[in-house]
Design a protein that fits this description.
Helix content is 36%, strand content 17%. It is an alpha/beta fold and 259 residues long. Helix 4 runs parallel beside helix 6. The protein starts with 24 loop residues before the first helix and ends in a 15-residue tail after the last strand.
């Protein structure tokens, strides 16, 4: 007699990922698909991926999708949610998108308390277009446009967008996690679950920032990329709950891995 220990989530398509080896997007896609199934929201979920590596999320997530121009996902998600308030609307965005061209749309959506969820994948560079410096590139980090490392006297300081959004009165739940270890992946799933529950409860804007490796553009192995996040990147972007008005801690959320 056999016990099934693994299967593809219902809302994850049977498609081969195109992402580079070690990229965190594939892990995050699976987590989203699992959460959709466990919360029973897959049939009414609508995703909004804009430009960047995130643009092809519709190849993998078997839910309704509406593409957005570069940086405009929060605005498109707002329109969808206001027209279809019974749907679960989320954007799926990289840091070069959400923290640069999309900063205004995102900040104002949070300040208005739009009842949408944002999945913010932060790998510190423009991944799809060659690894250029992004607003989230940490001080001293090499990129194709900062080959000697980001110099704050020349390039400015890295933007902590999640902290900025926490100041907005309409933001309800913001957490920063990573996908660098089994423990952190489980916590990321808890955070995603809580973000969608925040939307389901009508509490306002929710966002999960996920520190994700980009081995190709960082010129590191997948293993060393995860170590670099844990040992270096988290000094600038510590993993933590940044804002939570729900009054519910992690104990209110369980995952299959905990049982």
């Amino acid at each position: 007699m056999y016990k099934k220990v693994f299967q593809r989530p219902k809302y994850l398509k049977n498609a081969v990922y195109h992402y580079c080896p070690g990229c965190g997007h594939s892990i995050i896609h699976r987590l989203l698909a699992e959460v959709f199934e466990e919360l029973g929201i897959g049939e009414k979920a609508i995703g909004v991926p804009p430009a960047g590596c995130a643009v092809l999320a519709y190849y993998y997530l078997d839910v309704d999708m509406g593409e957005a121009p570069h940086g405009r996902a929060a605005a498109v998600a707002t329109g969808i949610k206001r027209m279809l308030p019974d749907r679960i609307v989320f954007s799926y965005q990289g840091d070069g998108d959400i923290a640069a061209i999309g900063t205004a749309e995102t900040i104002h959506a949070a300040n208005r308390g739009e009842n949408v969820t944002v999945i913010f994948v932060n790998n510190g560079v423009y991944g799809m277009t060659g690894g250029q410096m992004a607003p989230t590139t940490i001080s001293g980090q090499n990129s194709t446009t900062t080959p000697g490392g980001r110099d704050t006297s020349r390039d400015g300081f890295p933007i902590d967008l999640s902290q900025m959004l926490a100041i907005a009165n309409g933001s309800a739940y913001i957490e920063r996690t990573s996908v660098t270890s089994p423990k952190n992946i489980r916590q990321t799933k808890r955070a995603i679950t809580k973000a969608f529950k925040t939307q389901m409860d009508g509490l306002g804007f929710s966002l999960v920032e996920i520190l994700s490796p980009c081995p190709t553009n960082w010129k590191l192995s997948p293993v060393d990329s995860c170590k670099w996040i844990e040992e270096v990147v988290t000094k600038t972007y510590p993993l933590k709950v940044i804002k939570d008005i729900t009054g519910k801690g992690d104990d209110s959320i369980s995952t299959d891995e905990d049982s």
